[in-house]
Design brief:
Helix content: 25-40%
Radius of gyration: 14 Å
CATH superfamily: START domain
Strand content: over 45%
Number of strands: 7
Structural class: alpha+beta
Largest sheet: 7 strands, antiparallel
Number of helices: 4
Length: 147
């Protein structure tokens, strides 16, 4: 699968957008594709800090995401490795996500780079849907910021 880059401008100050990415209560409001929830969000936003975001699908299936913050440069840049695990806790998809926040006339441009690091064959379809999933998450982020 090819790597993905998505760029969006949000009608919100950079601090508000940064906070939406780093405050667990806010992340739980928008993380994941449409119809998904994030019942567990734990973020230790510092280099080497861990993250845990459990996404729950419309059918009730839980998708545990674990990761590590590699770089935290408030309010410009977040780099985090995130892996989706199977029921045995083994990674089935692992990606490096770089999120950049740039101020543009009182609004914020978010550029997200998704680099696939590892995928097992049975998760290839899910990995192929990364661009769509991230776009839906960013749609939900936009709605969250507007509320």
């Amino acid at each position: 699968m090819a790597d993905v880059t998505i760029s969006r401008v949000f009608d919100a100050p950079r601090k508000a957008v940064w906070d939406a990415w780093t405050d667990p209560k806010q992340v739980s409001q928008w993380w994941g594709p449409r119809g998904f929830t994030a019942p567990t969000v734990e973020l230790d936003v510092r280099p080497g800090g861990e993250l845990r975001i459990d996404m729950q699908g419309t059918d009730g299936t839980l998708y545990p995401n674990r990761g590590v913050f590699r770089e935290v440069s408030e309010p410009e840049r977040l780099v985090m490795s995130i892996r989706l695990e199977n029921d045995e806790g083994e990674p089935v998809i692992e990606a490096l996500n770089t999120v950049m926040f740039a101020e543009e006339d009182g609004k914020t441009r978010v550029t997200l780079e998704f680099e696939l690091v590892h995928v097992v064959p049975e998760a290839a379809d899910a990995a192929a849907g990364a661009k769509e999933g991230w776009n839906e998450s960013l749609d939900r982020l936009e709605e969250h910021l507007a509320a």
